[in-house]
Design a protein that fits this description.
Length: 212
């Protein structure tokens, strides 16, 4: 009698354990199934979300298969999904333009810059400095470089330092190697030994000075 009662109890325990394991497996299976079908929505703003970020860049850039530019920057963000795709350089940028013999025709430096890919247009902001092949030094606060139409221009105060004189004005336009340019609203020409006037929004008579 004792052995029979012990045998029945053992059988009941085994059945109970089996049922518990099956229930746990079913619960786990149901839980995993829910995890696989869960959808998480992520808000994506293409105008303000970069697709590529690169740091400490020193890169050569080709145009039509020919190396034409060298770019140096600390941070380079690419917003490739924006309606108007653009590059952004928040920590400043330095760009050199080469001729067909790989000689530097002109260089541009700025505190901040944007490049709009479709328009092939650069926008340089704050402490913009340009130097051309002739050793002339240009300073302004805002500059546009239109690669598509091969011209550089600004509507802001411009200071040009040459070997023997300094030229100032409001606004200018040039070819992209800065060898031929025109100054609008000239403020004057001053010998290098004298100090040029500080940046001013006051303009002289509507005159133009050509260096063509």
């Amino acid at each position: 009698m004792t052995n029979k009662r012990f045998h029945c109890k053992t059988t009941y325990t085994n059945i109970t354990t089996t049922i518990a394991v099956v229930v746990m497996l079913l619960l786990l299976s149901t839980s995993c199934g829910k995890d696989k079908t869960e959808v998480v929505e992520v808000v994506f703003d293409p105008e303000n979300t970069f697709t590529v970020k690169t740091t400490d860049v020193a890169s050569l850039i080709s145009d039509s298969g020919v190396t034409r530019y060298r770019l140096v920057t600390k941070e380079w963000f690419i917003y490739g999904k924006a309606e108007e795709p653009y590059w952004y350089f928040p920590e400043g940028v330095y760009v050199e333009k080469f001729d067909t013999l790989f000689q530097t025709e002109a260089s541009i430096k700025a505190d901040t810059a944007y490049y709009f890919e479709k328009k092939k247009l650069w926008k340089a902001i704050n402490n913009v400095e340009i130097e051309n092949l002739n050793g002339e030094f240009f300073e302004t606060s805002l500059l546009y470089w239109d690669q598509e139409n091969e011209k550089i221009y600004s509507d802001q105060y411009i200071k040009i330092t040459q070997e023997d004189k300094i030229i100032t004005g409001i606004g200018f336009e040039s070819n992209q190697n800065m060898s031929q340019y025109r100054i609008f609203n000239s403020q004057g020409v001053f010998p290098v030994k004298d100090s040029a006037p500080a940046d001013s929004t006051q303009t002289a008579n509507n005159t133009e000075q050509d260096n063509l």
